[in-house]
């Protein structure tokens, strides 16, 4: 699905859902302090609710290709803003990246120190090792 089209379809769905939520909010207000003269308004709101659900149902085929990580639903279930999911993922990735970089740096230093020590104790063998690996430069 084309990214621009997917964005517009998602925006349409978002608009429909926002209108649906607002309609539910208004129905809650009408019902919580129900007055008989408000019956017609309540009926209109309930009809708008049904129409809104029908519109959401029509839009579902346009957004079926959109994949949502299951963790986003956990955010929603826990009352958190699902937009924070991306921020948290980036922060976790940066933290993991720093950890991996630290490990790479530690292994690089270990390798350099090991080669220095091996060169001091086994210079001939290390020369053969470097020739096999194609690494002819002396260790520092």
Please describe what this structure looks like.
By secondary structure, the protein is mainly α. Helix content is 77%, strand content 0%. The protein is built from 5 helices and no strands. The protein has helices at residues 3-32, 39-59, 70-77, 84-121, 123-133. Helix 1 packs antiparallel against helix 2. The longest helix has 38 residues, at 84-121. The protein starts with a helix and ends in a 7-residue tail after the last helix.
Structural key phrases:
rod-shaped, 5 helices, 140 residues, mainly alpha
The DSSP helix count reads 5
Strand fraction band?
under 5%
Mean pLDDT across all amino acids = 87
Please report the distance between the alpha carbons of the first and last residues: 54 Å
| Alpha-carbon Rg, integer | 31 Å
| Helix and strand sequence | HHHHH
Number of strands: 0
Spatial shape: rod-shaped
How much helix, percentage-wise, in residues?
over 70%
For the biggest sheet, the summary is: none
Uncertain residue ranges: none
Task: Sum this structure up briefly.
GO terms for molecular function: transcription coregulator activity. Helices cover 77% and strands 0% of the residues.
Write the layout of secondary structure elements.
Layout: H1 3-32, H2 39-59, H3 70-77, H4 84-121, H5 123-133
Helix pairs in contact: 1-2, 4-5
Coiled coil: 3-30
Keywords: Activator, Coiled coil, Nucleus, Transcription, Transcription regulation
Subunit structure: Component of the Mediator complex.
């Amino acid at each position: 699905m084309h990214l621009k089209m997917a964005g517009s379809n998602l925006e349409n769905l978002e608009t429909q859902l926002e209108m649906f939520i607002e309609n539910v909010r208004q129905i809650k207000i009408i019902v919580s302090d129900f007055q008989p003269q408000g019956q017609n308004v309540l009926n209109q709101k309930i009809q708008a609710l049904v129409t809104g659900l029908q519109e959401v149902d029509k839009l579902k085929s346009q957004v079926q290709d959109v994949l949502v990580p299951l963790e986003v639903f956990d955010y929603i279930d826990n009352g958190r803003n699902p937009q924070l999911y991306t921020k948290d993922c980036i922060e976790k990735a940066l933290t993991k990246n720093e950890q991996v970089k630290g490990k790479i740096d530690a292994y690089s230093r270990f390798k350099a120190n090991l080669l220095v020590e091996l060169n001091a104790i086994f210079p001939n063998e290390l020369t053969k090792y470097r020739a096999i690996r194609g690494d002819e430069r002396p260790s520092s």
